[in-house]
Amino acid sequence: MARRPLRRDRRPALEERPGPVEGSVVRAATAADIGSVIELRILMFEAMGTPDEDLYDPRWRADAARWLQLHLDDAGVAVVVADVGGAVVSCAMGQVVDLMPSPTRRGDVGGLLTNVATFPSHRRRGLSQACVEGVLDWFTQSTRVDVVTLNATAEGAPMYEALGFTPSQFPEMRARLTREPTPPEAG
Fold first, then answer.
1. 17-162 fold
2. Does residue 8 surpass a pLDDT of 80?
């Protein structure tokens, strides 16, 4: 029987730590932070060139907020935020994903780093890096993950390289799947 990723009723708490900016702390996100995390996610997708009609569609935002409400306490998810003066200004998220072992990843789980973003007025102060380091510490201390992957923008790549990430030989590709609408059930 295959082993499952680390799962518990509640994920291990991430220790709050001082952030790189005076008056800042780096900590695990709470339900009260969901709105800020969604706004930061919008900035991330904007930086990745997501078209405005998709970016500002309220449906995905509501879906993302629901997802966060369901998964903030999941042992396979860590959302780390940087809080400056009581306001969330930066975040990063890690997810444990089930994967078949490979020559470069011996375990049966991998890590996905995503949602790394900082509000423009707080950039270039080390806040994103502090959030990413918090997620990497969580992967190391609380999961069986031995390889973490991410999609980097050109602006973010130098930070990730400084943290030990290397470009993949094979770039990610995507295909959007379409489905016929399901007819409503007669009743």
1. Aminopeptidase (3.40.630)
2. no
Distance of CA 120 to the CA centre of its chain: 18
Q: CA nearest 136: which of 37, 14, 25?
A: 14
Alpha carbons within 13 angstroms on the beta-carbon side of residue 148 total 23
Could you tell me which residues come within 8 angstroms of residue 96 by beta carbon, excluding any fewer than 6 positions away? 5, 6, 75, 76, 77, 109, 110, 111, 139, 143, 144, 145
Taking only the tens place, the pLDDT of each residue in 119-139 is 999 999 999 999 999 999 999
Alpha carbon distance, N-terminus to C-terminus of the chain = 41
Delimit the domains of the chain by residue range: 17-162
Instruction: Supply 170's token pair.
Output: 């094979």
